[in-house]
Amino acid sequence: MRTLSDILEEYEFLEGDDRYGLLIELGRELEPMPDALKTDATLVRGCSAAVWVYPASQENERLHFLADSNAAITKGIVALVIAAVQDKTAAEVAGMDVAGALAPFDLRNQLSSNRTQGVPNMIGLVQQHAARLAAA
To answer: Which of the two residues, 7 and 106, has the higher pLDDT score?
Structure first.
């Protein structure tokens, strides 16, 4: 998976429909999430499209998430959130300003509000999981 800074560098170079294209491409690049993990327990509430996030493993104290969505643009937004936190320690993710890391993408002004309304819930879910692990 690309780093968030690499994605931002490319994103800033693009405009309009090309940015949508990049988001769709990022969604396609997500590590596949098995259908068996797409359950009510992994469903992120408040998203206009179905979004699932699953904490797959914690190797070498680094978090690794699987995620998916049934909508292409939303899946790209999911990929951005995952890129911000993927393979970081639980303590890093729990203390991180994920929304701040995503702010340069200006998603609220680039996309309709119904596409971004679930982002805070997705960030909250990931950070709550990290906080539980960091406290253990």
So the answer is: 7
